[in-house]
Amino acid sequence: MLSGLLPQLFKYIDEKLLAEWNALIIKGVHMSNLEETMSFEESSLDIYSDEFEEIFDEKILKDLTRAYLDVVEPIFGSVGKKGGGAETSEGGVAVENDELKEYVLDYMPIAEPLLTSLCHLMTYKDSISCVRAVQLCARILPNLIKREGLREFVGKGLLTSALHALNDGYHKEFHPVIVSLITDIYIELRPFSPVPFETFSNLSNMNYEKLQKFEAELSQATESRKRKVVVKKFLEGITGVSKGEWFKIPTTKNQNTSSKKQLVGNYVKPKIGVLDVVDDPEQVGLVDLFE
């Protein structure tokens, strides 16, 4: 039953979330962090105003996105209270779900839409969803890399999405976590595949000499912290500007409302190579889920 339901469910929810986030980006994002969300909840905005409706819709979309992660995360294990399992650095306990995790990753009709959605979750304008998706991908990275059929996805789709997230000032607070995932992907996958090298070669202002120098420096860094420094420095060099100038979101002010972030251009679905999903979600039979 799961083999028939889950592929369609994951695919449909991913397509619907992507469409809703596209629409939100076109309108403009109001809340850039948790503090602004809490400020909205405590505000005295007119509930019948257009601004209130837009902010409320944005909050609902973020809640739905996080709820989807609430469903996905337990598939690969979760961090719970003490009482069983291995203790984590945060003081919780890692509860593994190996049998289900192995089944999902081995059965491509489920793995494809699920992993595709993780790529998208990293790039939405919701830092909580982004960092949760990044941390989840970091946890399952060894399981992905050991599967030869998923290595191209890791080195192209997953790495590209992480780079998109890093290149977004909206997630600036969590850039260290994103850099950590990018570093792990490159370090762990590069011995098995040239795809990470090829993905980096497609970055702006990149050439073969820069990549050769980067890999030489990376190979000499024996500690995790030093490797992350090498990656961060390398990515700074690509932008051609200092870190403080990497990511700036222009702001405009409406005459009768508070400042509102305007994100220029359409939100573009990241390319994910072999795991792209192009089927029509209307065929899934869940068309009323988000209505």
UniProtKB/TrEMBL annotation:
Q: Which residues form the Exportin-5 C-terminal domain?
A: 2-240
Q: Which Pfam families does the annotation name? A: Exportin-5 (PF19273)
Q: Which InterPro entries match?
A: ARM-like (IPR011989), Exportin-5_C (IPR045478)
Gene3D superfamilies tied to this protein: Leucine-rich Repeat Variant (1.25.10.10)
The protein's name: 151_t:CDS:1
Origin organism of this chain?
Answer: Funneliformis caledonium
